[in-house]
Model the fold of this input.
Amino acid sequence: MSAPKWIRVYAGPVLVSLVLVGAVAGAVYLPSDKDAAKADGCRADPAAIRAIRAEQILTQNPRLTRMDEAVEGLTCGSPSSFGSVSRRLTKPPTDTGSGAEVARYYAQLAQRSGWKPFEYSNYLYSATKETGGCPWWFLLRAEGDAYQLRVMYQPAGVPASDCAWAVDEPIFLQATIPIGK
Done:
């Protein structure tokens, strides 16, 4: 015995519509990562951001290079919470400077401004700076024909015991929620 003709004609489109409406409703009404961050108390630390933006390692660059505007980010939750201030460093296409030269420039600059190098870095250069709590961590990595400079800090509202990089070098994560200036 076969199903009535109207069921065969309308069942597929009705089911597809219900699935689409459910997916849209879930995306609109379920809490976002930003909502989860606010609920957990994790938030950007304006004082840390101002201080990091003033650091020489984010305000000075080697000759013949150009720094893009600083970008702030915030990641809250698993596996760790962190805030960051990043800048992209580009060089002219004719420049033959190597990553080692850029790393040497930032190592010298960091040393003069109170940063402690991390000896076993997975990046071109990595260093920490004590802040009285969770240290700031500076990471320099090659990114195609440019370099990425990033300083990571512990966000406000995150317990001191959640300092994931107090000893081990952090992973350079791209998945951060941009925050306003």
DSSP finds five helices and eight strands in the chain.
